[in-house]
Amino acid sequence: MRTDDDSWDITESVGATAIGVAAIRAYETSRADALFRDPYAAKLVGAVGSQGWDAIMSGTLSEQARTAGDMRGWALGSVLTARTLYFDEYFAAAVRAGIRQIVILAAGLDARAYRLEWPAGTRIFELDQPKVLAFKARALADEQPAADRREVAVDLRQDWPKALLDKGFEPGEPTAWLAEGLLRYLPGHAQDRLLERLVELSAPGSRMALNLGMDSDMADEYRDRRRKVMAEAGVRIDLENLFYPWADRKDPRDWFAMHRWLVTEGDPVALLEDRGRAVPEAAKAGMGQHILMTAIRPRGDETQ
């Protein structure tokens, strides 16, 4: 059960979900028709030393489990692939706009500092629990990031702005922020406080990208499918008990609009279909309950 002051290692609680996300990135990378390449995902998952995660990563689950929740037809797997594409493109657009300061909140096993192309002078700040960052540092000790990567070991429910500033963050420069797979692991009041602090640190021209799964009438069905896949692999994560309720939080699209940021949305189904990836009808309904969005703080000469 979650508490407001809990912490975790990479194999525990919220930390373990980062392994699952990396396993799906590794699975996508291994496909002949991969929509993105993350050559570091398999290395990160392998460093955990779990045969269960290896089975998910390699797609070697039994036919029964794959029928119940194959990653190619499973809504969650499709959403994770779509959101990776969306956020990769978000950073490419930020770089084209001249932004050289990147902040990844709850970075987990995100390898974008290593696998994406970054212009000279780019600084990437990765914030997460100390044990999670320590695991990634060990797993990627032989790799070199493609930018100036700075670890910020801090709990996001604590005074993370001070920790970020202490690592050289410049609040006067436009920033590209990312909160991927984060907000449902925070209670509503903590989500509000996180976004308020982010806005306080954001110069005009800054932007924010995030995703957030809403409650769905099909939640029970997807939960059962996910549990079958995890049980087959020998992996046990009680994901629902890691989430905080949707009802206790504000919709971030409305929140940023009220703060006069320019909000645009992404469609996870269209992101895949536009690239030739078929999305099963059974997955589309669940994917439609997932928010992908970007918000941009206007400069002085821009209006909403």
Protein described:
- The protein has 304 residues and is of the alpha/beta class.
- Helices cover 43% and strands 13% of the residues.
- The chain is built from 13 helices and 7 strands.
- Strands 3-2-1-4-5-7-6 form a 7-stranded mixed sheet, with helices on both faces.
- Helix 9 (188-200) links the parallel strand 4 (176-179) and strand 5 (207-213).
- It starts with 12 loop residues before the first helix and ends in an 8-residue tail after the last strand.
In short:
The chain has 304 residues and is an alpha/beta fold.
List the helices and strands and how they pair.
Elements: H1 13-30, H2 41-46, H3 51-58, H4 63-69, H5 75-96, E1 101-105, H6 112-115, E2 123-128, H7 130-139, E3 148-153, H8 160-166, E4 176-179, H9 188-200, E5 207-213, H10 219-233, H11 252-258, E6 262-266, H12 268-273, H13 281-287, E7 290-296
Structural class: alpha/beta
Specify the biggest β-sheet. 7 strands, mixed
- Cα end-to-end separation: 42 Å
Q: Compute the gyration radius: what is it?
A: 18 Å
> Strand order of the main beta sheet, please?
3-2-1-4-5-7-6
Helix content: 40-55%
Q: How would you describe the shape?
A: globular
SSE series: HHHHHEHEHEHEHEHHEHHE
Number of strands: 7
Oligomer: single chain
Q: How many alpha or pi helices?
A: 13
Sheet-strand content, in percent, reads 5-15%
Overall residue-averaged pLDDT value: 84
List keywords for this structure.
seven-stranded mixed β-sheet, single chain, globular, about 300 residues, 13 helices, alpha/beta
